[in-house]
Each structure stands twice: as C-alpha cells, then as structure tokens.
Queue: 2 jobs
Job 1
Amino acid sequence: MATQVFKLPESLKGDVKYSFCPGCDHGVAVRLVAEVLDELGVRENTILAASIGCSVTIYDFINVDSLEAPHGRAMAEATGIKRARPDKIVFTYQGDGDFASIGLAESMHAALRGENITAICINNTTYGMTGGQLGPTTLVGQVTTTSPTGRNVDYYGYPIKIAEHIALCDGTAFSARVSLDTVANIKKAKQAIKKAFEVQIHGLGFGFVEILSTCPTNWKMSPEKAHERVRNEMMPVFKPGIYKDVTVQN
Amino acid sequence: MSRIVIDKEKCKACYLCINECPKQLIKISNDTNKLGVHTVEFNDPDNKCIGCAMCAMRCPDLAITEVYRG
C-alpha cells in the first residue's frame, strides 16, 4: 500500500496556476509559507499584508485574508493590523526592493519596535517585475538594465545585507537567511520560515527570513544556471545562516 | 509501488525536476500543453521510483501534485 508523501498544501488555492516565470523560485517560497501555515494550523487566523512586485501575486494563490499596501509600506500596514487585532497572525511577503529599498524605513523601524509580526523577504538581486533594474541587493559588478557596465561601487555603492541588519535590531526575535538552490536548502528554508512564525505565535518579537531566490528572466539564464549563480556568486556574499534567535540565547 | 502525479497544464518547462531525480525517470515529453511548451513526463516501467519527492519539492510551479511511496 503506497502512502502519500507529498501533496499540495491546503493553504494554497488548489486550482490556481502560478503566474511566475518558468523556473522562478517564488513558487517554492509561496509553497513553503503555505506548508508552514498548514503545519502550525493558523491559516484561518492569519492576515497577509501584500507588497508590490512579483511577490504581490501571493494573494492570488494563498488562501488567507490579505490587504494590499503601497510600495514598501507592507510593514507599516502589518503593524497597524497587528496592533488592532493582536490575536491574529500577521505576516508580509516582500521582495528585496520593496523591503530593503523603498520600504527600508518601515522595515527597519518595525524590527526596532519589536513588532510581533513575521516578514518573508525574497532576495533575487534585482527588480524583477519592472524589468531587471539595479536593486539594493544587486551584487558588485552585476549587469542590470540600469547598470549596463555592472554595479560600480564608486557610483552605486554596496549591496545591503538585510538579514544581518535586521539581526542587529533589539526588537528582532529571529533573523535568518536561507537559500532555495538545492532540495536540502529548501528543507532548511522551511524550518526557518516555521521558526519566524513560531516567535510571533509565542509573542517574542519580530521574525524575519531572507530567502535567496532566482530571476532567470532578468538574469537572462536558464533556471539551472540561475541556481548555479545563487551558489557561486550570491551565497559567498549573502551567507546563509541564522543571525539571531532569542529562543536559543535564552 | 512509488509514483508521482504530474499536472501537465501547470508545467512551464523549466526542467529543474529532470536533474533532481536520482533515478533519471523524468524526461522531456513530445507532447505540449496549452502554454505550447514541451512538458515533462514520468516514465517508470521498472518500478525504480523511490518516492523521495525531491522532484515535487524542487518544482516551482507545483506541477508535481502528488507523490506516493511504497
């Protein structure tokens, strides 16, 4: 008798097809969030603050109540939702441009205030939805449509390491960076996302996970090559790991 | 008997699952779906599938909807 070892998470709308490009790791990240909501049994009690960018389409696929925020302001909106309804589980799902460039003030101060919310940030080193412009996490030397000769530090400065910065905030309970380049790392990513939700459920503070993802379309690479780039170019700069976890320190 | 179920209409032909299968049981199909792409197909005549579900965990479009082990 064969046992079912994999099924689609109940928190996802089953009949919906993703609108992401072929090979985009957003699909894996959305599935991991849905699986975590299933495992924690909090789907009925969860509110999503949606962002702007490719990440916004999560509300078409995930079966939770959601509100749209202006560009970068998802964290401010999530703060309002959580303070009005502290009994609810509130999370945001944002890209790196939304979280760390346009919404850096909102994101950083939410962490500094120790807001009891969870943030998932997808880092693909570019602005994916608008056509691959230079973003806050674009690697030094990386060619984008607005840095055609590569990111030059004299002109554009250095990429931001989000997980490290969030970990420095005193209100942060959990901050980690994970990758989706291999199945083993996908499993680690799920554990990190689960932990970020658990710190919220236990009222410990701000939970944050940065997910290294791919953008095969704007990187102009095959999905397989894009994962190699994550391994060889992104992971040496954006090192995966858990940067803060108050449950361990205590 | 272990097996996987592929929803071909969800497959966008990124082919990430092909390299993930330890038994090389997933191949590019001659058939196309409504998107007009050659989807993947699961072909396991010798019952080699071990039901590891690595293909399903890798698939970014949830086209591998079910995995059975046994």
Note: Chain A touches chain B through 28 residues (CB under 8 Å).
Job 2
Amino acid sequence: MKFFGKIWPRLYIAVAIVFFVAPLLSMARFAFQRIPVISLGKDNLFKRWTLDGLFTTLRDPEFMHSLSVSLKITLFTVVVLLVIMVPTTLWVHLAAPRWRGVVETVTILPYVVPPIALVVGVSGTYRSIAPWFLASNYSLVPFYAILAMPFTFRSLDVGIKALDLRTLVDAAKSLGASSFRVMWNVLLPNLRTSLINSAFLTVTVVLGEFTIASLLLKRTLPMYMAQAQGREPQGALGLGLLILVLTTILFTLVSIIRKKDATSISSKNINGGMVP
Amino acid sequence: MSALEFANVSKSFGDVNALINFSIALEQGELVSLLGPSGCGKTTALRIAAGFETADTGSILLGSTNIIGLPAHERRMGMVFQSYSLFPHLNIRDNVSFGLRVRGVRNEARKKRADEMLDLVRLSDLGHRMPHQISGGQQQRVALARALAAEPHVLLLDEPLSALDAKIRVEVRDEIRRLNRDLGVTTMFVTHDQDEAMSISDRICVMNSGVIEQVGSPRDVYDNPASSFVAHFVGSINSLPKGNTQTLIRPENLVLTTHDQNAQWRGAITDITFVGAFTKISVRLENDDAPISVLAISTQIDHNIAIGLNIGINEAAQ
C-alpha cells in the first residue's frame, strides 16, 4: 500500500507535466526549427534552430501597432476597474454589508452573459446614440472591465476581509485623518497585494481576449496573432510562446510579492529589515 | 467648566433605545469609567463622543464648544479599541506618529515625539518593529502611545483590556492609570468588568439599558449602591430576610458563628471555596432556596467548619 501511496501522486504529476509541456515543446519545434513539418523527427531534434521567424514577426509594423493598442487598452482597463471597484468594495464592507451579495452577483454577470450577447446588445445601443464610441479602440475598455470584474472584486473582497476594516478606519479618523487620508494612507497600502493581484489578472484577461475584439473589428494583439497564423505561422506561434513565457514570469513575480507580504505577516523575526 | 460633557444625549437604533437622556460631565484630568452589561449603551456613548455615531438629540461639550456636528477627524479624541488597531503596514514608530503625520508635523519633530511617547509606555526599543512582531499587551500600549502622541483633548478607551490575558490586563490597566495621572489627560473608559472599573476610576458611571443608574466614586458605588441593579452588578451581594422585608448585605459584611444560638440567620454550609487570601463559604438558609455567600479572611476561619455543618450568621458590626 505504501508503495502505491508514493507512486500515484508522482505518476499524476508526471502525466500532468507531459500533458502541459509536450504541446509547448512541439510548438517550440514548429516555431523555431527551419525544417518542413513533414520531415520533423527524432534524428533532426537539434538541427536548424533559429529565432528568425519570431524576429520577422516582431519587426512587423502591424505587430507593433496591435501591441501598442493592446497595452493602452490594458492600462485603461486596469485603471477604470480599480477606480470603480476599490471604492465600491470598500463601501460594501463599511457601510452596506447587506449589498455585498448584490454586488457579488453583478460582478459575475460576464460568466452568465455570453460575449456575443454583450457586444450585440451594447453595440446596438451605441451605434444609434454614439457611433464614435464604437469606432474608437477604447470602446473595448468597458467590455474588458466587465470581463475582468469578477477577478477584481474577489481579489479586493478577500484582501478587505483579512483586515479589521472598521477599526482601522475609526482609528485613523480619531487620529485626525480625513476620508481621503484614510483611503490613501491606511487602506490602499494594506490592500497592496490585492491591488497587484487584480491588476495582473486584468492584464491576462485583456491580453487573451479575442471574441469581443473580433466582433468589433479592433486590431488588438490576439487579433493580430490569429491573422498572422495564416501569413507567417511559425512567427505567430513563436510570438505565442514568447507571450506565454512573459506572462509566466509576470505571475512568478506576483507570487513572490505575495509570499513576501505573507511572510512579513507571519514572521517573528526581530531584525528582519521589515521597515517599509 | 468640565473637560467633556454629555448633555441629554439620546440615541436609538431602530426600536432599541441605546441611550436615553445621557448626561455626565468629566472634569479635567479625571478618569471616568462607563460600567455596565453588554448592550447597556456604554460603547454607544463613547462612539458618539468620538464622532463615529450621531446622537439623535442632546449635545456634547468639549470645554464650552458643542462638537455634536463636528466630523470624527476634527474632534481630537484619542481612541483605543478592544481589538488591536495598529496599522499593519506601518512600523511601531510610524504608527505612533501617524496622528502627527496627518496634521502635517515635520518628519524630525514627528520622530522625536514618537520616541518620547514610546519611552512613556516603556517600549522605546520596539520602534522599528512591525505590529505583528509584538505581543497583544505591547500592541495595546503602542495604541495608547499613538492616541496620546496626537495630544488629544480626551482619551477614549473602548474595553482596551478585554482581549488581553489576566496578568497582562493588570499591567496595561496600571499603565493607563499612570498615564492618566502623569499627563493629566481626561479619560473615559468603557468596561463591563467591575474589578477593572473599581481599580482604575476616579468615578464610575454604572449604566443599564441606556440609562445611568449611579455615578460616584468606586467606594461610594460599592458601599452605597443607588439601586438593586448597582448593588448586584458591582461586587456580589446577598439578599437576606429581615422581618417582612429583604435586606442586601455584601458577603464580607457577614460573619459565621458556631456558638451563637441567637444568630440573626441559620443555615447549612453547602460549599467552601478557598481563593487565597479569602475563603468563600456558601450557606443555604432554613426555608430559603438560594444559597447566600459569606466571604471570610482565610486565616481567621474556624477549623471546625465543614460542608453540611449547621451554622449561625450575623451581620458584622460596622
């Protein structure tokens, strides 16, 4: 029994690794080996590796354009979401706990409403009253804010629950802090990890979204990649891998920050350089 | 002129009257405890003074100014809470100087004042630590230093000792009393613990169901309770038959007698509890269901007494 107890978890992990890593390695061979797909085999595993395809794509002005569009939309979406959701979540916790359920339900609407219905509904409304709104690339921002809302709300909600919010606010006020001061000097610093988490989750939602961008005919990064696959498949897949690696690095950084915050809370170290 | 005065303050939450015509005046430098069971309105009174709740009617005078409409952050009330309320992201020194920082005091002056205050609560070595790195008792002392650093008009303490264990509780309690005396800061202390209120206060305000039952010195409240509620809530008390009425007598004002056949009351001992300096003896009176208790100095107890023994009880000569 003991033998099986040890072997099964390892087997599962091994299968999981093969399941996730094998396609990535195949992708890498396809993207970075200058060998026709039909001739890829065991004997030419280490031959003719090159990053040319990737560089060709990276030099494409269309790519730079779509990247800049996506980054701008991402930035705006993060800002819009935090500006809306931070005060809302704090308000729900401080002043209207009865409304928490309602707000939570509203934030999970994007799971219930399919993107196509969202786009058809919203664009139908705007096409008649404000056509310029749909023409701009930034018309994606409200859609993406809605898509990322569940992650932002949950991340902030968890962060706020971990604080003794009412007492911290009262303590700060009794010490002379105005509402703005309470927010800026007490609440936001203590919600740092939550804010970073929700920002990064928003980034991944926006950088991976295809349906809405395609329906509204916006030239975002995912749209560019989908189209480039037809023209320059190796370069497009190389780009896909690059983005995967970059997001992995990003998430590793986030979890390092999260872990650092967690240890600073649990640590009993006296001179651990904990001065902020 | 009083330092802080509540004048006919009333407050209700829905159908519940939390505070009814609450009036009390605190003299400069005085430490007054609001004592009562949970739900008696003591915390509501404190939160109204701090500006966290609004009174339905009445006024609150700070010196001669009515502060009822002033927002909490402009009242300069130092407050310490039951739960440790230190800001988790700031080290101890920055916590203490927070009130000065929001008032725009310069960095050097802030640091100096914070170190002085930490010195005052004897925690000067801990300035660089984070709140989670110090004990609960230390956190409450830092919270005191933080409230005092901002030079408050009045110090408001909302059950600050409740989360601490017994030994630390006494230490922090003594610390509060010492700071109140040394700095002369007017202090309002909310507690449900009568021992705490007795040992720390200049005056105790006993409350029940939103109403003040009695205000007086600890001695006065104990010796001359104004109502049956006060008599029962502050200290323990026996209700004994005397003629056709009942009389209230504290356990320490009763003496046991084995030989006096004309004792005022007679009964059988049901329990003997040794609590160090004192011993508590429970006696069930003849024709009476509820046992009464007698508190005697342990060293003066007759060696013959034992559970089951029939015994006489007299009221001690005052």
Note: The longest helix of chain B spans residues 166-183.
